[in-house]
Amino acid sequence: MINCLIVDDEPVALGILEDYVTRTPYLHLVGKCTGVTDVLKFMEDGDIDLLFLDIQMPGLTGLEFSQTLSSKIKVIFTTAFDQYALKGFKVNALGYLLKPFSYLEFLEASNRAKEWFELTRKAEAKADPVVEEDGIFIKSEYKLIKINYNDILYIEGLKDYVKFFLSGKEWPILTLMSLKILEEKLPKKQFMRVHRSFIVALDKIQTIERNEITFGKISIPIADKYKDVFNEFINRRSLK
Fold first, then answer.
1. Which residues, in sequence order, are CB contacts of 188 under 8 Å at separation 6+?
2. Which has the closest alpha carbon to 175: 202, 204, 137, 149?
3. Residue 52 bridge partners (DSSP)
4. Are the beta carbons of 6 and 28 closer than 8 angstroms?
5. How confident is the model at residue 86 (pLDDT cuts 50, 70, 90)?
């Protein structure tokens, strides 16, 4: 299934898109918005794979907004202005629909998106880390590298990549992987997520100050979402 969101400031266009999406078995409609500011709320609440995005809207245009999106979120532009087509493809759109478009045209664009997501997900599945008792194998620079758990200080997520920062190593190891997948693979007793962008090795924590964990010159914030679990861990290890 592809989780999609439709964005258009015209109620009629929203209704047509909603009908087309619900008629397409592999599309799951997460919601509909009349402006790009509403999109942000949906992105906070759940995973969005695909946007059917109108280009010409008041305030921030669809083209401008698409350039702020994560590379994991793909776009099929919908517009009445064909002069925007070339610009749309320059921001890596998966498709372009010129209004008024038929369901057949919609389905053709959606099928291209489906093929793209299938290929991407197969590639991601092959890139899954291989877990062992004392470490994890990851792909980096066309090589399979084993990282020992005891060497990890912290891990940083950057969109589609993660960086492993290791004891005694000046430079991190970079691999194509989501922080969410990695969090599920790592042993819970040794590692904890403390921020949307950071996982820390619990036994490497030495300094905590003002809701930040310090590793040398690097300070990692402890986000509100993770504070309770982290504080519970600290309290268990503190002297009474």
1. none
2. 137
3. 6, 76
4. no
5. low
